Amino acid sequence: MSIEPVSEDSVLIRFGDQLDEQLTPRILAAQARIASQLGDWIIDQVPAYTTLLVVYDLHKVDFRRVVAGIEPILAGIDEGTSAPRDKGRLIELPVYYHPEVGLDLEAVAERAGLTIEDVIVRHSATTYRVFAMGFAPGFGFMGTVDPSIATPRKSTPRQRVPAGSVGIANQQTAVYPSVSPGGWNIIGRCPTQLFSLERLSLLQAGDRVAFRAISRDEFVDQGGEL
């Protein structure tokens, strides 16, 4: 692990250099301990795939003191700090998998040499870890998908991806919480609201997500829009 300055009031802690689910519990453990032990100095923390951004109050502390405070915390979080696969909140998200809403479902199946049903089964059989939040409010980057259905991002992003769209990009999967541009391969649609101004984000880094296949009628009954 390393600590490096990002700006006059923030530092970046690096836990690794490639996507690895085992890093997530270490990052979240560091975030919790920093908040507990250095909370008076800290304005915000942002966990990501392999890093933790720590924003501190310049009126109370400087870079050297922050690093001096963080180093002993990191020393207590070694590579053995991990969490079992079932650690963290488990959130189930229903998905209507069908070419009617899965704009790239057929293409993903064809690329993988699988049937559409195979893609659905393999995508919904995995419990995913939320590695990071970003791109749009409520957008959780999750992984990792079954290698057989991992599909590169589209070379030309769509200008408009419907809210609730479930996509795959390489080893990751995600649900678009709102209408936006996007280049992920869309394989279905989820009726669950992932973000609102009242509740904010349903997902948080460290959560686990299980997708459950539902019918068209169930999708509509649960508030989904076609």
From TrEMBL:
Residues 1-203 form the Carboxyltransferase domain. Keywords: ATP-binding, Hydrolase, Nucleotide-binding. InterPro entries: CT_C_D, Cyclophilin-like_dom_sf, PxpB. It is an enzyme of class 3 (hydrolase). The keyword Amino-acid biosynthesis does not apply. The keyword Plastid does not apply. Its EC number is 3.5.2.9. NCBIfam families: 5-oxoprolinase subunit PxpB. This is 5-oxoprolinase subunit PxpB. It comes from Marinobacter halodurans.
